[in-house]
Amino acid sequence: MDKKSLTITSFALFSLFFGAGNLILPPLLGFKAGNLWWLVALGFCVSGVVVPLMGILAHAKLQGTMFDFAKKVSPLFSTVYCFIMYAIAIALPSPRTASVTHEMAIQPFWDSSYVLTSLIYFVLVFIFAINRTKVLDLIGKLLTPGILIVLILIMTISVFTLDFDFAPSTFNSPFSYGILEGYQTFDAIGAVVVGAVIIVSINLKEKEAAYTDKRRLIRAAGFWAGLGLFVIYAGLILTGALFGKSFDADISRTALLSGISIATLGNTANLFLSVLVSLACFTTAVGIVTGTSDFVKSQFKDSILAYRITALVGCVLGVLVGQFNVGYIIAVALPALMFIYPITIILILLNVLPDRFTPPAVFKTVVLVTILFSIPDFLGSIGWGEAIQPYTSWIPLSQYQLGWVLPALAALVISNLTQQKTEIA
């Protein structure tokens, strides 16, 4: 494992999770967290950094596709899970990129509507998805370093020029709020959906390397990529907290990021950042539509028609959902994430653990328990929290919308003990 391979792999992993749309999340978290910014940062990085990187480690172990993540439950469950994951990806984070682009790069300079932006945006996405080209891949490799440079400048200027005079936190449970906001990065979903691409790339470049060497490379690269993500996310949260008294309390996520950029670097740099973020969002949208279309194509005997229909449906969804503001899309995404994220996190955990602790019976038990105990959190996210509270108050951590965590871990331990007793008998 040489330094060049480690550097390339680390940056590839970092780029996989460093979505431009995610940049709008940390500053507002810090802005609202105030003096408790560090607790929010820890929570955000649990779900936005640790879990996604565990997903890559799971892929490294499986050496397969997303289907392999859930196949121990059953092939049917895995197929349904894959369809749900792609449906969420194409219906929520993809349209959100258009909304972010509108609020950061269009709205501040032109009197234009969300509908017009999303329509033009997804017409272009459809053209690029149908006519595949490596141009966007090349642009994407330049965008991440460019955005990083601007962000590092913003964070450095903020830390060294502003007083560490924080406003009081508006959160009752900053750590759990940070975890739930980390769901909105969609990075755990990204790790499961496209993580296999990274593994395949490593296998192609390191053909002569032994399996253990590849695992070691992925673990080391995961550490450095995770450290980079932690520094960026925590730095943006701290920056937001430092500006806690500088903007209106009801400021939007995109407006806050733009405001901080202008305050630290000026209007010219803010325009530069807006263009970079918009281009990065566009490449993300094309990647999501293309990936989803490829999946549907594979389910219909490599049908080109299935690919094109899926791409068209994805772009139509993009226009319909992308016409709403970022805050609304994030609010709409919450119920879907409260349903799919616990399942995804537990599948990642089960696939990371040694096989002796995760036979099919354990897989089925733990996933079933996770689904059952995540239902109250899902119902709470759609406004039924008070109605079901008398029936769910006994569930540990349910008040933090993490009621599935301890039951799932208990199911893992108990099902393993039961399995061992059965084998001994």
Automatic annotation (TrEMBL):
Keywords, alphabetical: Amino-acid transport, Cell membrane, Membrane, Transmembrane, Transmembrane helix, Transport
One of the record's GO molecular function terms: L-isoleucine transmembrane transporter activity
Biological process per Gene Ontology, one example term: isoleucine transport
InterPro entries (UniProt xref): Brnchd-chn_aa_trnsp_Livcs
Annotated membrane topology: Multi-pass membrane protein
Membrane spanning stretches: 7-25, 37-60, 72-92, 112-130, 142-162, 182-202, 223-243, 271-292, 304-322, 328-353, 365-385, 397-417
Transport as UniProt keyword: yes
Protein localization: Cell membrane
The keyword Cell membrane belongs to this UniProt entry's keyword annotation: yes
Gene Ontology cellular-component terms listed: plasma membrane
NCBIfam families from the UniProt entry: livcs
Family of this protein: Belongs to the branched chain amino acid transporter family.
Name the record gives this protein: Branched-chain amino acid transport system II carrier protein
Native source species: Flagellimonas pelagia
Lineage: Bacteria, Pseudomonadati, Bacteroidota, Flavobacteriia, Flavobacteriales
